[in-house]
Amino acid sequence: MATEILMPALSPTMEEGTLAKWLVKEGDTVSSGDIMAEIETDKATMEFEAVDEGIVGKILIAEGTEGVKVNTPIAILVEEGEEVGDVSATPAPAAEAPAAEAPAPTAVAAAPAAPQVDLTPDWPEGTAMKEQTVREALRDAMAEEMRADDTVFLMGEEVAEYQGAYKVSQGLLDEFGAKRVIDTPITEHGFAGIGVGAAFGGLRPIVEFMTFNFAMQAIDQIINSAAKTLYMSGGQMGAPMVFRGPNGAAARVGAQHSQDYAAWYMQVPGLKVVMPYSASDAKGLMKTAIRDPNPVIFLENEILYGRTFDVPDMDDFTVPFGKARIWREGDDVTIVSFGIGMQYALEAADKLAEDGISAEVIDLRTLRPMDTSTILNSVMKTNRCVTVEEGWPQGSVGNYISSVIMQQAFDYLDAPVINCTGKDVPMPYAANLEKHALITTAEVIEAVKQVTYR
Amino acid sequence: MAARKAASKPNVSAEELKGYYRDMLLIRRFEEKAGQLYGMGLIGGFCHLYIGQEAVVVGLEAAAEEGDKRITSYRDHGHMLACGMDPNGVMAELTGREGGYSKGKGGSMHMFSKEKHFYGGHGIVAAQVPLGAGLAFADKYLENGRVTFTYFGDGAANQGQVYESYNMAELWDLPVVFVIENNQYAMGTSTKRSTKSPSYWERGAAYGIPGEEVDGMDVLAVKAAGEKAVAHCRAGKGPYILEIKTYRYRGHSMSDPAKYRTREEVQKMRDERDPIEAVRSMLLTGKHASEDDLKAIDKEIKEIVNASAEFAKESPEPHLDELWTDIYADAAPQNA
């Protein structure tokens, strides 16, 4: 049967091209793989190979013709003894797919209503509490989950014999052995990838980065492999795992060891992002993170490791993702923060109270999913908002919160939202400069006074 | 360190040999059809064809057992067909349709099959190497006796994460076969222009990993080397490297004019070293199959490939709701 040879698409963007040269003439026999023509695309001159065997019955487009649309018949291939006339003049087959029905467009947010907020307490009233550091809380959370699930293991630099560079994994090697608490070489890109592969293979890895600064070596595996595989596989497989370690500035360690990655990871669909402040949240959220069937970025803080908080003394204490915590109720302004930013937010609220300003302080705890309902609900009451974080200003977490408030509670605002952030500079080493580069309590107080017009 | 060449070729039955012919021909014809559909605008974006390299995956699949895993780069259609994935599902993914392995959301470079233990389908050069070592890590942890074939090209072989993976794989005795598909060109850069040391497999020596070079145009040589590598891994001796010398007939992707090599070089490989022609002639000269037998196979393959193209054209585009699914898992995925 005679077949039409169509102008091929030879690049992802090609819509038309020039038929530069025919390398066969009418009557020639061609077989699969023979070059038939040279075609100029927008990028290059390409050789066009025959796919089927046959005889060139007729050349329909002369060489030198420009602007030949993709899928235009350019020649006719016939079989031995067949006439060109056997080909009926069929139009070029359309490459249109049977279109799936589009859902009706959803209406853009109408009149703002107070969103539903989950106000259930994190633990039952009357629960006994114990004092613990954030460091101990994280260790206990990992140990409890490792006891409960044999597929959970911890890998990273110095996590086993050294007992953790920041002593977060202290005692885990003794309890769980070298099979499940694994010292890696200093090779972040490699062991992050091995962790993701192990998660594909049915395990529940906890990958510790000595700090998240070093995870930049591994960020391709975190985002391209861990975060995107569930989607790329149509839901067939994903990476249930935790990437954890200290994030942000410690003290006097310079520009390369002091970055806050909250805003970076928060941007990525497929990841969940946790950044706790207190020990109870560190514990409850870590347990949730290990059980979560998705890749979780768990951003800790070196300065907070040694801080002591009350932790509920319960058998199985967990904190759900996507639920903010209101640390302090207030009427005049909403201060939203997370991680170590909470320290400045709470200090500022104390001092503002002395000046008669009542601040509501919200700890987001998880940045993705983010509990925007609690923020909006609060802003609808206070009509003012200040965000607090250590990271850089451009493309900050606060920027995102501001946009959500503007789009969903604009009419409630009595002042522009102010984002308090770290300064727009690499972290300096000198003690006085470093202090100035970070967010300060004084700056939070100043921002609140601006939005409350005091 | 192992010998440079596979010592001997295995004894295979006529049926096995016919099977390899059939499997290689399926890949060849499937890829030709994919190239055709690309030309018609039915396949978009990047499309990396496997034509010329068929003996690599068919030889290694002949050395694999049920439950063994495989993972590779974006030049992945051949691997999927060789491990038994459905040509309809693969072709429909190429056309971005609902009936594709990833419901049309992955495309040529990103397909997976839990059922066939195929773990992708990865678009970042060499990223699959630590992932493959990680799959082997899980198998060792779970003590299930499985082996992972981790495929990568000569281009990927210069990425740092390959060597990070070599180090940990040998340190922890992971059951992984690192398969370097050396088709001699990393996109448009020949190995001579990118790599000082003459052979990639020898780099394993720095990590204590044995390996060998294999003739990738000879399916039986590949099978023999694969069996040796798998036996090493299954015996708990850690990883093994196979550098398989092969050749891709087509450009790096569909939009590659391939000006970095001569037409004569490609034609010489096709004429003298074609892996499918080699098996065909072995079958005919050894009288293991008649021309008619082979014609019957050709016909069967043509029908399968045409059916896959029809399926891939007929399958509808994914529903727009699919945009928002599979971003997060609700329950634990059963990966293993």
Mean pLDDT of chain B: 94
Instruction: Tell me the CATH superfamily of the largest domain in chain A.
Output: Thiamin diphosphate (ThDP)-binding fold, Pyr/PP domains
Tell me the span between the first and last alpha carbons of chain A.
87 Å
**What's the main sheet of chain A like?**
7 strands, mixed
Indicate the percent of residues in helices of chain A: 25-40%
Structure description:
- The complex is a heterodimer of chains A (454) and B (336).
- Chain A is α/β, with parallel strands linked by helices and 454 residues long.
- Chain A has 3 domains: 3-82, OB fold (Dihydrolipoamide Acetyltransferase, E2P), CATH 2.40.50.100; 129-312, Rossmann fold; 325-451, Rossmann fold (3-Layer(aba) Sandwich), CATH 3.40.50.
- Chain A is 27% helix and 23% strand.
- Chain A contains 13 helices and 22 strands.
- Chain A has helices at 134-148, 172-176, 188-200, 219-227, 229-232, 262-266, 279-291, 302-305, 341-354, 372-382, 397-409, 431-437, 441-451; strands at residues 3-6, 16-22, 29-30, 35-40, 45-49, 54-59, 65-69, 73-78, 129-133, 152-156, 181-183, 204-208, 241-246, 272-274, 295-300, 308-312, 325-328, 333-337, 359-363, 366-368, 385-388, 418-420.
- In chain A, the strands form 5 sheets. Chain A has a 7-stranded mixed β-sheet, with helices on both faces. A 5-stranded mixed β-sheet of chain A has the order 17-19-18-21-22, sandwiched between helices. A 4-stranded antiparallel β-sheet of chain A has the order 1-8-6-3, with no helix packed on it.
- The longest helix of chain A is centred in the first third of the chain and has 15 residues, at 134-148.
- Chain A starts with a strand and ends with a helix.
- Chain B has helices spanning 14-39, 54-61, 77-82, 87-94, 128-142, 160-171, 191-194, 219-234, 263-273, 275-285, 291-314, and strands at residues 69-72, 118-121, 148-153, 176-182, 185-186, 189-190, 211-215, 240-245.
- Chain B is an alpha/beta fold and 336 residues long.
- Chain B has a single domain, classed as Rossmann fold, CATH 3.40.50.
- Chain B is built from 11 helices and 8 strands.
- Residues 1-8 of chain B have low confidence and may be disordered.
- In chain B, the strands form 2 sheets. In chain B, strands 2-1-3-4-8-7 form a 6-stranded parallel β-sheet, with helices on both faces. In chain B, strands 5-6 form a two-stranded antiparallel sheet.
- The interface between A and B is large, with 70 and 85 residues.
